[in-house]
Protein: 7-cyano-7-deazaguanine synthase
Organism: Cognatilysobacter lacus
Amino acid sequence: MNTPARKAVVLLSGGMDSAVVVAMAKTQGFEVHALSVRYGQRHTSELDAAERVAAHLGVASHRTVDVDLRGIGGSALTDAAIDVPVAGDTGDSIPVTYVPARNTIMLSLALGWGEVLGANDLFCGVNAVDYSGYPDCRPEFVEAFERLANLATRAGVEGAHLRVHAPLQFMSKSDIAREGMRLGVDFGLTVSCYQADADGRACGSCDACRLRALGFEAAGVPDPTRYVNR
Protein backbone atom coordinates (compact mmCIF):
# COMPACT_ATOMS: atom_id res chain seq x y z
CA MET A 1 0.00 0.00 0.00
CA ASN A 2 1.43 3.35 -1.05
CA THR A 3 1.92 6.00 1.63
CA PRO A 4 0.09 9.24 0.72
CA ALA A 5 2.42 12.07 -0.24
CA ARG A 6 2.94 14.78 2.34
CA LYS A 7 1.16 18.00 1.49
CA ALA A 8 2.99 21.29 1.16
CA VAL A 9 1.84 24.83 0.48
CA VAL A 10 4.21 26.62 -1.89
CA LEU A 11 4.06 30.38 -2.44
CA LEU A 12 3.98 30.96 -6.19
CA SER A 13 4.42 34.52 -7.42
CA GLY A 14 4.87 33.65 -11.09
CA GLY A 15 8.55 34.58 -11.13
CA MET A 16 11.52 32.34 -11.85
CA ASP A 17 12.43 31.71 -8.21
CA SER A 18 9.03 30.53 -7.05
CA ALA A 19 8.65 28.34 -10.15
CA VAL A 20 11.88 26.55 -9.25
CA VAL A 21 10.68 26.12 -5.65
CA VAL A 22 7.49 24.42 -6.86
CA ALA A 23 9.59 22.03 -8.98
CA MET A 24 11.94 21.34 -6.05
CA ALA A 25 9.05 20.57 -3.68
CA LYS A 26 7.56 18.17 -6.20
CA THR A 27 10.92 16.46 -6.67
CA GLN A 28 11.10 15.96 -2.90
CA GLY A 29 7.85 14.02 -3.11
CA PHE A 30 5.43 16.64 -1.77
CA GLU A 31 1.87 17.03 -2.99
CA VAL A 32 2.12 20.69 -3.92
CA HIS A 33 -0.67 23.19 -3.29
CA ALA A 34 0.39 26.49 -4.82
CA LEU A 35 -0.72 29.81 -3.35
CA SER A 36 -0.52 33.15 -5.13
CA VAL A 37 -1.44 36.50 -3.63
CA ARG A 38 -3.01 39.45 -5.40
CA TYR A 39 -1.74 42.11 -3.04
CA GLY A 40 -2.32 45.18 -5.18
CA GLN A 41 0.89 44.78 -7.16
CA ARG A 42 1.15 46.94 -10.25
CA HIS A 43 2.66 44.05 -12.23
CA THR A 44 -0.43 41.83 -12.13
CA SER A 45 0.75 39.87 -15.17
CA GLU A 46 2.84 37.84 -12.72
CA LEU A 47 -0.42 36.27 -11.52
CA ASP A 48 -1.19 35.12 -15.06
CA ALA A 49 2.31 33.67 -15.10
CA ALA A 50 1.61 31.86 -11.83
CA GLU A 51 -1.38 30.15 -13.42
CA ARG A 52 0.76 29.06 -16.37
CA VAL A 53 3.52 27.74 -14.11
CA ALA A 54 1.07 25.86 -11.87
CA ALA A 55 -0.44 24.13 -14.90
CA HIS A 56 2.97 23.42 -16.43
CA LEU A 57 4.34 21.83 -13.26
CA GLY A 58 1.16 19.91 -12.47
CA VAL A 59 0.42 21.05 -8.93
CA ALA A 60 -2.36 19.39 -6.95
CA SER A 61 -4.19 22.71 -6.60
CA HIS A 62 -3.61 26.41 -7.09
CA ARG A 63 -5.49 29.34 -5.65
CA THR A 64 -5.08 33.09 -5.53
CA VAL A 65 -5.96 35.07 -2.39
CA ASP A 66 -6.68 38.81 -2.38
CA VAL A 67 -5.05 41.10 0.19
CA ASP A 68 -4.90 44.68 -1.05
CA LEU A 69 -1.75 46.30 0.33
CA ARG A 70 -2.37 49.47 -1.64
CA GLY A 71 -4.32 50.54 1.42
CA ILE A 72 -1.09 51.03 3.35
CA GLY A 73 1.16 51.92 0.40
CA GLY A 74 4.82 52.60 1.00
CA SER A 75 6.17 50.66 -1.97
CA ALA A 76 6.82 51.31 -5.65
CA LEU A 77 5.18 47.95 -6.36
CA THR A 78 1.82 49.02 -4.92
CA ASP A 79 1.80 52.82 -5.28
CA ALA A 80 1.77 54.27 -8.81
CA ALA A 81 3.02 57.58 -7.39
CA ILE A 82 6.38 55.99 -6.53
CA ASP A 83 8.66 55.24 -9.49
CA VAL A 84 10.22 51.81 -9.80
CA PRO A 85 13.98 52.54 -9.69
CA VAL A 86 16.25 51.73 -12.60
CA ALA A 87 18.72 48.93 -11.90
CA GLY A 88 21.78 50.19 -10.06
CA ASP A 89 20.06 53.30 -8.68
CA THR A 90 18.92 51.76 -5.40
CA GLY A 91 22.09 52.57 -3.46
CA ASP A 92 22.91 50.75 -0.22
CA SER A 93 19.57 51.33 1.49
CA ILE A 94 16.51 49.11 1.33
CA PRO A 95 14.92 50.03 -2.03
CA VAL A 96 11.44 51.44 -2.54
CA THR A 97 10.42 48.15 -4.18
CA TYR A 98 10.34 46.62 -0.71
CA VAL A 99 6.69 45.95 0.19
CA PRO A 100 6.11 46.38 3.96
CA ALA A 101 5.28 43.05 5.62
CA ARG A 102 4.66 41.29 2.27
CA ASN A 103 6.48 38.04 3.03
CA THR A 104 5.07 37.95 6.55
CA ILE A 105 1.54 38.29 5.19
CA MET A 106 2.06 35.75 2.40
CA LEU A 107 3.56 33.16 4.72
CA SER A 108 0.72 33.75 7.17
CA LEU A 109 -1.80 33.01 4.42
CA ALA A 110 0.17 29.90 3.46
CA LEU A 111 0.21 28.87 7.11
CA GLY A 112 -3.55 29.24 7.42
CA TRP A 113 -4.23 27.28 4.24
CA GLY A 114 -1.74 24.66 5.37
CA GLU A 115 -3.74 24.10 8.55
CA VAL A 116 -6.91 23.64 6.51
CA LEU A 117 -5.19 21.18 4.17
CA GLY A 118 -3.27 19.33 6.86
CA ALA A 119 0.03 20.48 5.35
CA ASN A 120 2.87 20.91 7.82
CA ASP A 121 5.38 22.19 5.25
CA LEU A 122 5.50 25.66 3.72
CA PHE A 123 7.83 26.62 0.87
CA CYS A 124 8.87 30.10 -0.22
CA GLY A 125 11.39 31.45 -2.70
CA VAL A 126 13.19 34.03 -0.56
CA ASN A 127 16.87 34.46 -1.31
CA ALA A 128 19.68 36.06 0.67
CA VAL A 129 22.35 36.09 -2.07
CA ASP A 130 21.16 37.74 -5.29
CA TYR A 131 18.38 39.91 -3.89
CA SER A 132 17.56 43.57 -3.34
CA GLY A 133 18.29 43.86 0.38
CA TYR A 134 14.80 43.13 1.66
CA PRO A 135 14.78 42.37 5.40
CA ASP A 136 12.17 39.62 5.00
CA CYS A 137 14.45 37.59 2.73
CA ARG A 138 17.03 36.91 5.44
CA PRO A 139 17.55 33.50 7.10
CA GLU A 140 16.72 35.09 10.46
CA PHE A 141 13.26 35.96 9.17
CA VAL A 142 12.58 32.44 7.91
CA GLU A 143 13.72 30.91 11.20
CA ALA A 144 11.63 33.36 13.23
CA PHE A 145 8.52 32.68 11.16
CA GLU A 146 8.91 28.95 11.63
CA ARG A 147 9.02 29.47 15.40
CA LEU A 148 5.93 31.64 15.18
CA ALA A 149 4.13 29.01 13.08
CA ASN A 150 4.65 26.39 15.75
CA LEU A 151 3.48 28.75 18.51
CA ALA A 152 0.48 30.31 16.82
CA THR A 153 -1.38 27.36 15.29
CA ARG A 154 -3.51 24.49 16.53
CA ALA A 155 -1.37 22.11 14.49
CA GLY A 156 1.78 23.33 16.22
CA VAL A 157 0.27 23.24 19.70
CA GLU A 158 -1.02 19.70 19.11
CA GLY A 159 2.46 18.48 18.23
CA ALA A 160 2.79 18.76 14.47
CA HIS A 161 6.19 20.21 13.63
CA LEU A 162 5.58 22.91 11.05
CA ARG A 163 8.50 23.71 8.77
CA VAL A 164 9.24 26.68 6.57
CA HIS A 165 11.46 25.68 3.66
CA ALA A 166 13.48 28.29 1.78
CA PRO A 167 15.52 26.08 -0.58
CA LEU A 168 16.89 29.00 -2.61
CA GLN A 169 18.12 30.87 0.47
CA PHE A 170 21.82 30.59 -0.32
CA MET A 171 21.71 30.02 -4.08
CA SER A 172 22.82 32.59 -6.62
CA LYS A 173 20.53 33.51 -9.50
CA SER A 174 22.74 31.47 -11.82
CA ASP A 175 22.42 28.46 -9.49
CA ILE A 176 18.65 28.91 -9.55
CA ALA A 177 18.61 29.10 -13.35
CA ARG A 178 20.65 25.89 -13.62
CA GLU A 179 18.49 24.08 -11.08
CA GLY A 180 15.34 25.12 -12.90
CA MET A 181 16.70 23.83 -16.19
CA ARG A 182 17.65 20.55 -14.54
CA LEU A 183 14.12 20.17 -13.18
CA GLY A 184 12.44 21.03 -16.46
CA VAL A 185 11.08 24.46 -15.53
CA ASP A 186 10.01 26.52 -18.54
CA PHE A 187 11.31 29.96 -17.59
CA GLY A 188 9.56 31.42 -20.63
CA LEU A 189 6.30 31.08 -18.70
CA THR A 190 7.51 33.20 -15.79
CA VAL A 191 7.39 36.96 -15.17
CA SER A 192 9.88 38.60 -12.79
CA CYS A 193 9.81 42.26 -13.84
CA TYR A 194 8.63 44.83 -11.29
CA GLN A 195 6.82 46.79 -14.00
CA ALA A 196 5.90 44.16 -16.57
CA ASP A 197 3.14 45.21 -18.95
CA ALA A 198 -0.26 43.53 -19.20
CA ASP A 199 1.17 40.95 -21.58
CA GLY A 200 3.98 40.06 -19.19
CA ARG A 201 6.71 41.75 -21.21
CA ALA A 202 9.63 42.95 -19.07
CA CYS A 203 11.03 46.46 -18.91
CA GLY A 204 14.64 45.27 -18.91
CA SER A 205 15.78 48.07 -16.61
CA CYS A 206 14.50 47.38 -13.08
CA ASP A 207 16.45 45.53 -10.41
CA ALA A 208 14.45 42.33 -10.90
CA CYS A 209 15.21 42.34 -14.63
CA ARG A 210 18.90 42.98 -13.98
CA LEU A 211 19.27 40.11 -11.51
CA ARG A 212 17.32 37.74 -13.75
CA ALA A 213 19.34 38.57 -16.88
CA LEU A 214 22.67 38.28 -15.06
CA GLY A 215 21.60 34.93 -13.63
CA PHE A 216 20.83 33.46 -17.04
CA GLU A 217 24.05 34.89 -18.46
CA ALA A 218 26.23 33.50 -15.66
CA ALA A 219 24.54 30.10 -15.93
CA GLY A 220 25.09 29.96 -19.69
CA VAL A 221 21.33 29.56 -20.14
CA PRO A 222 19.46 31.34 -22.96
CA ASP A 223 17.31 34.14 -21.57
CA PRO A 224 13.69 33.43 -22.58
CA THR A 225 12.39 36.73 -21.18
CA ARG A 226 10.12 38.75 -23.45
CA TYR A 227 11.13 42.41 -23.29
CA VAL A 228 9.04 45.41 -24.28
CA ASN A 229 11.76 46.88 -26.49
CA ARG A 230 13.16 43.71 -28.08
Observations:
- Residues 17 and 125 are 6 Å apart (CA to CA).
- The first helix runs from residue 16 to 27.
- Helices lie at 16-27, 45-57, 102-117, 139-152, 154-157, 173-182, 207-219.
- The mean pLDDT is 94.
